[in-house]
Structures are given as structure tokens and as C-alpha cells.
Design brief:
Length: 128
């Protein structure tokens, strides 16, 4: 009986709903930006200390039948003091479209770059 309850709970909580479109971020160092068709729709606050995250960001409210592109960017640096050197940046996320995983990204570097250090564009025509 315990196994049956476990299987039922697992099936309920592990299957994303159809038509659910979202990013699931596990790491952001320092700022994540999501744009749809060139318009910024979400920007995180500066994430300090590179913690493990469990951040789900729905993009559903911003999608239309005419949406063509989704873009993710990572901005590195210290927004409160641009003169402070920031050596490390990192991003780890998964993109779900219609409840299905589309892409998994884990990028990082210790190259001291600031500003936009990562950019990934997704063409919706590839999934629709």
C-alpha cells in the first residue's frame, strides 16, 4: 500500500501540466533576464553568493500565438558598485514548453567579464 501511495504521489508531482511554459533556474550569478520578442518581461534582483535555487518563472502570461522568440541573458557584475571586480558568473536552468523539457543549460566562467556574459535565443517555430 505504501508503494502505491508513493507511485501516485510521484506521478502527480513529477508530470508537469500540458501547456505549461516556464524556466526552472537552479543557479543565477548575478542577474537573469528573460525577453520575449525583444521585450524584457522578467529580471531577477542581483543574486549574491551563488546559492542553489529552486526558481520557477512562468512565461505563459507573455506568450501569444504570434510569439517568435524567447531569450535568456545573464548579467554579471555588481549593480550597486560597477567598480568592484566580479570574477565568476554562472547559470543553470531548464526550459519547459507545453510541459516538456526543451533545453538544459549549465554555463559558468571565471573570466572577470561584466555586463551581459551569456545569451541564448529560442525560436518558437522549432517547437510549434
Amino acid at each position: 500500500m505504501t508503494h502505491l501511495v508513493y507511485i501516485l504521489l510521484l506521478s502527480v508531482f513529477s508530470n508537469p501540466a500540458k501547456n505549461e511554459n516556464y524556466f526552472y533556474f537552479e543557479k543565477i550569478d548575478n542577474i537573469a533576464i528573460i525577453s520575449i520578442d525583444g521585450n524584457e518581461v522578467f529580471r531577477t534582483e542581483q543574486v549574491k553568493g551563488n546559492p542553489d535555487l529552486n526558481l520557477k518563472i512562468s512565461i505563459e502570461p507573455f506568450l501569444t500565438k504570434d510569439t517568435k522568440e524567447i531569450m535568456v541573458q545573464i548579467e554579471n557584475g555588481h549593480s550597486y558598485n560597477p567598480n568592484i571586480k566580479d570574477e565568476h558568473w554562472e547559470v543553470r536552468y531548464e526550459l519547459f514548453f507545453d510541459g516538456e523539457p526543451i533545453d538544459y543549460i549549465w554555463e559558468q566562467a571565471d573570466d572577470s567579464r561584466t555586463g551581459i556574459v551569456f545569451e541564448k535565443k529560442y525560436k518558437l517555430s522549432e517547437w510549434r
